[in-house]
Fold:
Amino acid sequence: MKSYYRHLQSTLTFGEDMPADYRPTMRSSAAFPLRFEADTIDTEVTFMGYWLLKRQMKEVGIVLTVRDDQGRKLHVQHLVVSSPKAYVWRASALAGTGKIGRVFLGSVEVEVFSTRDMVYPYPAITFSFISPMGRAFVHTCGRIYNDLEDLRENDEVTVPEAGFDLIPDDGYEPFFSFVNGPLDQSGSEIELEFVNQAGQSLVIPRRLGSLPPYGTAWIRAFSSDQEREHLGSGFGTVKVRHDLKGFFPRLVAGNEHIGPKALSLTHSYYDTSSETGAVTYWSNSHPDAFHDAVMPVAVPAVFERVEIVIYPIYPRSGVCLHFDFYRPDGTFLFRDQTPRSLAEGPRLQYVNCRAIADAHGYAGADLLCRVIVEGRGKCPARLKFGINYGNRGRIDMPSNICSSASMANPKFMGKPGTFKWCSIFEPDNELIYLTNTGFPKGSLEAANARVRLWRHADDTSIEWDITVPWNGVLEVLGDRKTEISQFLGGEVGWMTFTSDNPFLNGFYITDHGHGLVGADHIY
Structure:
């Protein structure tokens, strides 16, 4: 794990001085497990040429490589990206060539090359599993390191991977997966600590099977009924302790429903609960003006479950959490009075913001929940929560977004605006919520943003302007869904948001009405 302070420097975050040892990033990569089952599971990767808009580059080169689960190359293709338009690749297209069978497990790696600094070694690529129950998706999480220096920088501290939900009910199979790097790690030992909502732990040692260089590990979390019974009837979580080397050890994770077939998607995050060093914590230098950290959550009325998940992955810090609710126009409504803390040993907490809003008389209303982190000027530096949007249907598989809080940072106040973007899949089954809030205690200006919609067919775009009030939330698609669908022509597109306010953020959510909800934060 790289420290949060080092992360801010290496990604040239606004206001940070360039470190003396800074090296430009000319290669970035994303590596995803690839599942394909004819008629039931397809894998899709999509991206847009954002480098041309965000970095003012003329072009970048893309190399897409498909490997089987033993790391053998089956397919390589090259692409020059010279337009901001949407790009899409699906495993089903490869199945038609005979390079993969009707049932396939392997990986897809997308490498991006440039003659100019891309800053981030991981590109903004959206990865989806598509099944009869709908679509689940997640952004780039795993990658193959560029060189030894890249590896060393990200291995400052080795910590467990955690922070995702396991569904223990019959018919569900929780999993986690990763794509190996250049080292053979067959037979490596890992340790799984299963944590239920009572805060009880069950530790199970496991040994990986064959895992040659660039192979794919797909690990079912439950090896017997013991783990399932330990979690009981509610969702649980797991901590994955490992000593794996040679690749960025962020895990793709989720739950698989066996019949009807469906896969949910999220990714793991650092478990820093055992860390004690100075860089483990973030200091708020202006506690009178700033909250220590804030995370916005859109609370749409169309979902019965809008849960914030507080995982047992933080060091003890005495941090309290407040849940403030606002109308979409930024009008403050109420603060939930239930006392909550960030780290209570192994306790796993689920807070249903939709249920809280309904109990206060706001059933049927779209709201914003502002999660305020208060630690008297000090809180964990690596601060992530789960966000579960859910509606029960034939199955019950909510989203499990890994979402970060906005840390109090006076340097950020001088940033003149922001550039955000996200995928748009099927407008009739998708919602895109933009939020405008952050760590300042006072009121700031509304966020004015130019929305541009890009499609796969060509580099044509359509655009319009929006405004999101401070502490407000806005659903972007609204009554434009028919226009957007016609413009996209049935293919995946991308949206960009160029704002004069640096606190603009958001989420995009898909729901096909069967109980599988896919969601992620925007880039």
